[in-house]
Amino acid sequence: NLPAGSSTVNPNAYDGIDNNLNGIIDENYELDYRLFKETSKNVVLIDSLNPVQHKDFVNQLGLKDPMIDEARDDGIDNDNTWDMGSDDFGIDGVAETHDFGENDGKATSGWQKPGVIAGADGKTNIYGLVDSGEPGEANIDKTDVHESDQIGMTSFYYFVPSSDIALSDQNDMWKRLQPGKFEVPDAIVNNRTIRGEDGDFIFGTGYFPLLPGETERFSLALVFGQDFNGVFRNKKIAQIIYDANYNFPKPPDKPTLTAVPGANKVTLYWDKVAEKTYDKALKKHDFEGYKIYKSNDPDFSDIKTISNGYGELVDYKPYVQYDVADAIKGFFYQDSQLYELSSGKPFYLGSDSGIQNTYVDNDVINGKTYYYAVCAYNTGDQVKSIYPSENTKLISLDASGKVTLDINTVMVVPNAPVAGYVAPESGTLLTRVKGASTSTPSVNVVDPTKVKNTTYYITFIDSLVQGVPVGYAYNVIDSTSNDTLLAKDTNFLSSNGDIFNGVNLSINSVYQNLDSLKLDTTDSGWRNKNLSNLSYTISQYKYGSLTGVRCPYDYMFVFHNSFVDSSSTLNSIFGSSTKLKSKSTTFSVYDVTDKDNPVKIKYAYIDKTGSLQDTLSNFDVVYLSNSDGTQLSWGITFQGTGVHAPAEGDTLVLKFQKPFTSRDKFVYRSKSTQVDLAAANTSMNKVRAVPNPYVVSNMFEKALPSTERGRGERVIDFINLPPNSKISIYNSAGELIRIIYQNGNYQSGSTTWDLRSKEGLDVAFGVYFYVVEAPGIKDKKFGKLAIIK
Length: 789
Prior knowledge:
The chain is mainly β. Helices cover 6% and strands 30% of the residues. The longest helix has 16 residues, at 228-243. The protein is flat, with a radius of gyration of 39 Å.
């Protein structure tokens, strides 16, 4: 190699030969151990070490290293990053498509031997692979940037002025792009600009072979920053993204946000798609929470108050934050490298508040415009120095007032509903059709605009848990259309259920836990008038390896004055060697869970020696079973001396708490929003214009974006209107200036006048009169307003 500063390039740098047998074709010193470049005036431009891996054929070093001379078309996982647990999805790289290579335990490349995919003749080409047209599985060949060399920039020419070279001269351009050609003007010293000037630059990377029919992929990063340190930090981030095979952790999928305006409130709700996001880079579900942002500015500029370590405002303060109750909370810990890369930007992970998908903001003013965003974020990874990621919040408002929203952002104006508004009823209990669960779900109205006039059926799906049928999911079916709106929904929640047609269910799931299945003491007991009865204690049978089932049923003991039944030895449970005896008894036991179909069950009876014989008395024990004596459940121990002996006409009812099961079915008859015209007619005197008088501007007018300048809109609102109202506006001379209408939306009993005439001209200041009338309303509202310059 020629010494640094030489005016010519060593021919070895481009002769296509590995002259020194070190595994690197073309001995370009710019690509070898030390990178050094200076101008003819001895100004150092580049001086850095660049150690490279290579194969040393002379000393037999590196010959078995799979990452030297690796390729992205050899069908080999050279860097051993393919993972069977998370990448074995087949040649299309998508799970559960049942394509070639899926779940076969081997890495499947997008490059395949001819005949493997089609496989008609079974022939293969042992000399090479062909492109299947599919990407292949993750972390091999096409999908793994590590399996190719990062050549980097091998030539750079920054020229001033920009017209200094002719870009159309191909021969000249080729020479300037040859590896080893680095030239910058003297305004660049030690890789830093010492003055500003207008120039252009060309750069190249190579050489590399590109044979006919081959495709070579390359990556390019253009990095910007506020200063040199900012550029350098961003360059590090770009390199990290590349090294991560572009599978850098991404924020969860954006939730779809809906806003419902109300009287002095705004209801927000959003879906749960973010909570199901799987991060391919971290190979886990890493959703952590939601941040709700609120602003009067579409740019959210008024809440950009969080600064980084340099004092720069870099982040927005959330209005509300919800996070998973998983002990991941507080500020995200950053090691020194990540702290430097993030410029000391803090990230608050939450306080283990738990997740909600609805929020009601009561701190709003009717008629004022608000902007909201709900952004999902993930946990990041402290061990791997990966900063948490959060959704963007994009709202654009042009000079004409047109608003463009992203799916996780909304613009909303709260207002009182129309006069005579009747809201759908919320908090009502469902009507039971069948079943005996202890709890009954109720309905919460989240979005009254979506509530329909229809009937829903709610059913449950169960499975056996330790012998007990326990519901684990529910269905919601619209009986009118027979559509299943929620299918196998497993969100048994009391306050955050999945929303369908503007409502969700509040389901008390406490009894889905077997430990909660106990005796309902409020509705159990003796059904006779004698106050001196046997007391009793109930427990789940447990002896040795045998445990009874916590059967969530209702039982009834029916007593007589003579022997009417016999206890069982329960040999189907305890075997032929059972020590239980069959005894005549003066009582029978029934399963009365279904009141209309009582079922006589078998039971074991231990008549304690020394107690009153032949009927229940002190320390007697009864073990309950089912009708065929194959399932043991509860043990009941009776206590009491000198008490009333159960006799003809006495009954003992034992009711146990019950989970939702497939036997349960409920109905919900929903009614949409309504308008009571009689009530609306009596409310016409509440119609008014605000502000009145209008002086210069008012607080209800939407602000222009922070990047725009100008007067912005002028508006007067008419409020408390009946639906489909017509407002006629006249000047003091009685001339009709404008007619505006309420759009029929029940949720907003207001409409806006932009202070323009029917010709689109700004109206003059002065006094105006208005008349409000509406279909079905016999009375009219007359009023006046003033516009003051």
